[in-house]
Amino acid sequence: MTKIINSDADELIIARKELEYQKEEKGKLLEELFIANKELSFQKEEKGKRAAELGIADIELAFQKEEKGKRAAELGIADIELAFQDEEKGKRAAELGIANVELAYQDAQKEKRAAELIVANKELVFQNEEKEKRAAELSVANKELAFQNNEKEKRAAELSIANIELAYQNDEKEKRAEELTIANKELAFQNQVKEKRAAELIIANEELAFQNKEKENRAAELFIANKELAYQNKEKEKRAAELSIANVELAYQNDEKEKRAAELLIANKELVFETGEKEKRAAELAIADIELAFQNKEKEKREIANREREQTLSYAEGILGTMREPLLVLDKNLRVKSANEAFYRNFSITAKETEATLVYELKNRRWDTPQLREALEKILPQKSAFNDLEITFDFPIIGSKVMLLNGRRLIQSEKGEELILLAMQDITEQVFSSSATTVS
Fold first, then answer.
1. Distance (Å, whole) CA 420 – CA 225
2. Phi-psi group of 315: left, alpha or beta (phi > 0 → left; psi -120 to 50 → alpha; rest → beta)
3. Residues 108/109/111/115 CA torsion (nearest 10 deg)
4. How far apart are CA 69 and CA 308, in angstroms?
5. Which of 151, 215, 238, 389 could be bridged to 405 by S-S, CB 3.0 to 4.6 A?
6. What order do you get walking across the sheet with 386-395 strand by strand?
7. Where is 330: in which H helix or E strand?
8. pLDDT for 42-64, tens place per residue?
């Protein structure tokens, strides 16, 4: 019995040691799982960084594409401007085509890498789920080990399987690490290619700058050549102008010589003509004596006629002065030549204010009316007259006056000047009385 008890105690001790060992193994497995989870989170962070780097790389590639588009446009303009560099354009176009092919290949590779990373992420998610399941199973196993010692062998088998799976996962992790290293190498290679392309673009830009400088030099040379041509053209024009002036002077001298020859011929003719003219002048002088005698007789007749005309004018002026109706005599410029006493009296104006004054300016331009202007300005040009032109004048002191005007063109005076006789009749009282009668 004692031996049986001792053997049972030994078995219990061994079982306890095995349980402690299993607990230690479980703790180690839990630590390994914790480390694996940390590694997975680290891998996730690394994947996020790689994805961010890929995003940045995509942005850089898009920017490079835009820059390449701009550079292609600039190269196109440079190709148009630099027609004499066809060979260089072909090389640049070939290089750009190769660069575009390489960029398309890099984009395809990036898409493949992105697809692989997505698959890897899915696998890692699946592995995490499997690990969580395994952790749950291990926790269940720990609980079961506490009360199911008989299941030790099964759990040991499951632990061996779990170890195999962990080994498999470690192998997968190593493969993923190798793939990430390969991806990093590819990214480094792409960066080197990008740097090469950037260096090539810089060289192309430098070549374009050099070509632009050459163009500027050519433009400056052309500008100087144009200035020299303009100066030469000006000089030619000056020489042509001088030659034309010389030709004009020669033509003028020839004309002068011809004129001198013609003048000599004319002088000879004039001498002949003058001799004849002298004879004519002698005859004309005799005729002039006869004409002078006739003119003296005509002058005597003119003096007698002028005396008679002056007497007639003085007689007419006397008649005009004795008339009761106002009268004005105007010259051809419509200035007052004379007026009778009735005019001065009726309109309260002096001879000094009237004579030599424009008729429209009398009494502070009170005579300036459209009807009077129209009537007076037609008399002399049309040799006409007007009768009974009724005009109302508004004078500041003597008040309103309604006048009937009659105009005539007089005979010419001794100086040949035409005159206008303007006779007027004051009908103010008659108009006012008739208007009063009409109102009543």
1. 80
2. alpha
3. 140
4. 114
5. 389
6. 336-339, 327-330, 420-426, 399-409, 386-395
7. strand 327-330
8. 998 898 898 888 889 889 888 98
